[in-house]
Amino acid sequence: MTEVVAILFMAVVAPLWILLHYLTRWKSTKTISNEDENILGELWESAERIESRLNNIERILDIESPDWRKK
Question: How far apart are CA 52 and CA 56, in angstroms?
Fold first, then answer.
């Protein structure tokens, strides 16, 4: 009888236990930390500034050298 219980434990309970353990670990690491969120915010602001600068440069080039996009 104890062999049957041991086999059931090893075949059913232990794999399920391990699977649920790693699923909860994966879900907890899936969320971003406050530090990561702050870094993403800074990167977003930096990207917006770069996009604004690029648009200004393109407008200046359109005025000074209208054919620059063809080159």
Answer: 6
pLDDT in tens, 34-65: 898 999 999 999 999 999 999 999 999 999 99
Sign of CA dihedral 16, 19, 22, 27: negative
pTM of the model: 0.55
| Greatest Cα-to-Cα distance within the chain, rounded to the nearest angstrom | 90
Those residues whose C-beta lies under 8 Å from the C-beta of residue 40, and which sit 6 or more positions away, are: 32
Domain that includes residue 16, residue range: 1-31
Whether residues 63 and 39 share a domain: the answer is yes
Distance CA 4, CA 11 (A): 10
